[in-house]
Structures are given as C-alpha cells and as structure tokens.
Amino acid sequence: MTLExxxxxxxxxxxxxxxxxxxxxxxxxxLPDKTIKKLEKKVLLRELILELFFKVGxxxxxxxxxxxxxxxxxxxxxxxxxxxxxxxxxxxITSLFLLVVITILIDQVGLKFFTAIxxxxxxxx
Amino acid sequence: xxxxxxxxxxxDGDRSAIRLLVENNKNLVWHIIISMVGRNSDSEDLxxxxxxxxxxxxxxxxxxxxLSTWIGSITHHICVDYLRKKKKETDFxxxxxxxxxxxxxxxxxxxxxxxxxxxxxxxxxxxxxxPADYRTVITLYHLDERSYQEIAQITGMPDxxxxxxxxRGRNLLRETLITLIPDxxxxxxxL
Lengths: 125, 191
Known about the structure:
CATH superfamily of the largest domain in chain B: Winged helix-like DNA-binding domain superfamily/Winged helix DNA-binding domain
CATH topology of the largest domain in chain B: Arc Repressor Mutant, subunit A
Low-confidence stretches of chain A: 1-8
Oligomer: heterodimer
Number of domains of chain B: 2
Distance between the termini of chain A: 49 Å
Largest sheet of chain A: none
Mean pLDDT of chain B: 82
Helix content of chain B: over 70%
Number of strands of chain B: 0
CATH architecture of the largest domain in chain B: Orthogonal Bundle
Order of helices and strands of chain B: HHHHHHHHHH
Shape of chain A: rod-shaped
CATH class of the largest domain in chain B: Mainly Alpha
Number of helices of chain B: 10
Order of helices and strands of chain A: HHHH
Largest interface: A-B, 40 and 53 residues
Radius of gyration of chain A: 30 Å
Structural class of chain B: mainly alpha
Mean pLDDT of chain A: 82
Helix content of chain A: over 70%
Distance between the termini of chain B: 40 Å
Strand content of chain A: under 5%
C-alpha cells in the first residue's frame, strides 16, 4: 500500500502514528494485573496491622483502666507492689509478653494474610 | 471519579479503586518509562515500583495538580533515579538507535513508495535518535496528548523549556527524516 501525499502540517500525525505503532510502547499484557495484586496485598497487610494495633490498644487500655480502679480502691501501694513483682520476675514476664506478641502477630496478621491471599479475597470488593 | 474520592476509596481498601488507579494511569506510566529508560528487563519492575511509590505517597498529593500528572512526575523521578544509578542513558541511545533502523528500508527509496509500516519505523528510528528529554516530551505531547503545563509538572521543567524541547525536537525529527528520505523535504520544509 502506498501512502497518500502528506500535507505540510501533518508532522504531528506522522509522529503520533509512529509512536502508536511502536510495540515497545504497548504495555505488556498481565503487567497491570500483577501490579494491582501487589497493591492489594499492601492494602490488606496495612489493614491487618491497623486492626492488630487497635486490638492491642484496646487490651492495654482495659488493663490501665483496671490498674486505675485498683489504685483508686487500694491506694498507690498496689503500683509499688506490681513494680517490685516485675523487677523480680522480669525475665519470665518479658518472655511471656514476647510469646503473646509473636502468637498474636502470627495469628492475626500472618495467617489471615496468607489465607486471604490464597483465596484471593480479604479486601472490600 | 474525582481524584480525592479515588484516593479516599483506596485508603479504605476498596479493590475496585486500586484497579481504577492502575487502569487509568498505566499507559502514561509505561510511556514515560519506555521513552526515558527504554524496553529492558527492568522496565516492568519500574512500572510496579511507580505504583507502590504512589500508594505510599498519597499523603503528599496536593489537589492543585491532577492525580495523573502527579503519578507522571513520580514516574519521571523514579526513571531519573534509575538512570542515575545505572548511568545507562547514553548506552540506551547508542544501542537502541541501530535496533530501531527498519528492515527492508533503503535511504534511496521515495517516501511515496514507502509502506505505512516502514514509514513508522523510519519515524521511530528518528525519535530514538533524539536525546531522552526530547523523546519524553514528544511522547507525552503526541501520544498521551498532555498539555505543555502538564508535561512541565511531570518532568519538573519550566513551561518554556517544554515548548522549546517540543519545537526543537520536531525540527530535529524533520531534519533526520529528510536525511533518511530526501523526498520528504518537499512536504516537510514548510513546517
């Protein structure tokens, strides 16, 4: 097929047609989907971590509230007793605390995340 | 959908909004990457990196620019960083120019005898010879139909520089095309 004569002001069209025909400028199929899945994983992970922080905050808040009630009823001596107890048994308490944190992290974030990813769900549609 | 609504939906974990964000901007991002870096094994990683950075940086987005323009500027920054790290810009120009030379085209041919496809290859070869900045603004202007202002915001160049790059780029293209196909002089001389 031979070309029709090109008008003087058609360099724009010439450039546009050439660029549109460039295979390199055509996005590889599957790349957008791969990117979307990566972003979805990020969103899911962020949601799970936020949820975890919220739950931890709720538990810690309740504990502080409970401590406040004890202090209100029994006076400040309770706090000194708790502090002495912590200093004496800090290794056991720290180990238990770490164990609880790791367990919750695996259960609430790790397992939920991988289950959701494998099922392809877990985000608001 | 309004940019701010889209961002809010993405922050709320709305999967359809994430898809919309990528679908609406994928061509712009890909075109900037290819015009600046070229098609290589890193192009797809750069594409994904752009959207991850966009996702991380939503708080930095100001509504005085379009979301797509902001995404374009992030793409431009990422490509500049990539080129700086790899020091690859010159290699790309040198290596790619020859690859873009079209099969079956002879410089003695009249442009009237040139097939559409071949002519496209000639123009692409000429575009590939341009410096990376010229190539980028010309791609954004002609293929993505972005305004001077938008291109300026994406590339971080002043409006005047963008205009001058497009104008000079077109002149360089015209000269290269006339060198490759002398017959084109009669129709491109008046530009």
